[in-house]
Amino acid sequence: VRVDGAAAGQSAADGTFAAAASPGLHRLEVRLEGYQPRRLDAAPGDAALEIVLEPAVGFASEVVVAALRAAEDAPFAVSELTAEAIEQADYGQEMPYLLARTPGVVAYSETGLQAGGGYSYFSLRGLPQGRVGMTFDGVPLNDPEESAVYFANFGDFTGAISAIQVQRGVGTSSVGAPSYGGAIHFESHLPADERELSAEVAGGAWGTARGALEWQSGRSPGGFAGWLRTSYQQTDGWRDHSGIEQRSLYFGADWRGHSTWARIGGFSGREQTELAFYAVEPEVLATDPRANPMQPDETDDFGQDLVYLRVGRQVSPALDLAAQVYYSGAQGSLELFDDPAARQGLTEYGIDGQATGLLLTARARGGRWSLDAGVHGSDFEREHYAFAESGERLYSNTGHKDEASAFVKLAFDAASRWRLFGDLQLRRAEFRYDGAVDLEPVDWSFVNPRLGVRLAIRDGLALRASVGRSGREPARNDLLEGQDDLGAPVNLERVRPEEVVDYELGLDWSGERFELAAGLYAMEFEDEIAATGEQSELGYAIRRNLPESSRRGLELEATWRPAERWQLSATANLARNRIAVWRQAIDVYDAAGEWAGTQLVTVRDVEPALSPERIFGAALEWRPRRDLRLELAGKYVSGAQLDNLGLAELATPSWEWFGLAAEWDLAALVRTGSPRLRLQVNNLLDADQVWPSGYSYPFLLSGAGGTPRLTGTPYFYPLAGRHAVVGLAVSF
Question: Which pTM was predicted?
Fold first, then answer.
């Protein structure tokens, strides 16, 4: 419940509430997850109000999205970020930093900043985001060729999202990229029943600035409603010449009939970036922590568009059907010097491609069971090209990727407190390369089963267990051995598909003041496609298969409300991540520093690259007044290897990070627009050597006795020192 835009507490279990207020007319707002918010004017002394909330057509009821996400009682490791949680946390940061509030997630940015835009990435349980399946309103977000998601292409993504579900581990069947290391489902804002106009402006350190305007049309008597959000943001970047400008447009509209509904939605984003995708040696960072080895002329310019049309019908109270068609396209180019030191040979590398797809889903419900089923197919093609500085076309090739899949999920109440869950996905994918070199297409087929059980011990306390298997094909970069264009044939089956069997055991406890989700997991990999710690000339990670590896650990997510004005939340991930055997060809240098060939090195029982084994997060929230909220957040991440060789000198240092947020509702001072002021201070203690990610160049160095010694050079992405962002939001 909010009064004049300021929080006024929550209702009691029976739905009643009371709020203290001064004489006169006040704006009352009531929100409940899964329902449309209700706003009305009221004054103290009025007769008792009865407020009825209408269900929202969102995750709770839309068959397309609900068929992909895990239900509330599904036996999987799941974290939910609600609309209120996202709104409170949003200060313009890139999406990976918002996801880092959930267990097992570590984020980093190439610019060194969390807000203002730029290329940023996350890992989940030590697995990079390219191995996490992501959807936006039920549309696949991952690039079909590389399975990558570049949030920089569509800035202000956090501001357009109203709900996020993070599944860790294999999770449930989805569409697009397989749920291999996890799955994340994003839901955009819903068209509201009431008309509203809101605006946001923000500014901060290192040229950070943001502006956004959002409009809700309100629902017409005919059942139509729409919304539109446009934004601009920029930053100079903390690292030298790493600035970015982003423009984005998000939109949605729907029509709701008695038993039929339709929705259209999507986004269009554009960005221009000064590139900073190369990391830096620690010796350089010690004297110049903002160093960027790339040249100011090395830039990129990309855009990404997504649009979908969804229609659904409630055939009966027990059966819902829906169909969704979508288009997703990305185009643009980057410019890199062939000789960066001499700043010669500025070459343009570009892409132009799109995917189209169709998803059919059904939901059926009985007295003790529920069933979700879906069929998905997509067609993708993308041209890759390069031009010399003179304008000469250097190469052009096209990658084609087709996918077809089907899934069925069944939940059954076997007894009063037992709920069984089964999920089976069949999936087939094919890749074809068209270029100067003729290659035969390659295809893969996968059978991905999941089984789980949930036992409700008593109200608010439940045990869950699940086991699931998922397979995933290599990315284009893996197939083409890190090359963007082929000059000679390669074996497209050199890198094999990877598979994981995921075992999960957990406990969920929810009380009046305390909530806890705790789980044990064991992810056993076969033929894992692992990063070697090297990079291609275009910044792609070089990967290949390893025969046996595992990620096993304990996860915790807890919230405690000791008093009405206080809340403490915490997350933890304690893991043991291992590669059984790793073999890698390493360059050899003689005592004079001259290259002397390569040698195969074998190591055993080592940590995989960029998989920290201890991740802790905590946030303390205090509301000293109804209109003021303060939050102190912290994170600790242990060191992580930069490659798979296990050398202590080729690892990130452990790091701690603290942030302070203050949000002040100004409605009592300014009666128009419900203004809210927010201050965010990142890296509050000005910690240095916060180097969350990077890569390495390992090599063998021959000593005086001729015995080679394994060593190497680490490279890190640095995070900025203390910096702040302040923003103002108003709504009418």
Answer: 0.91
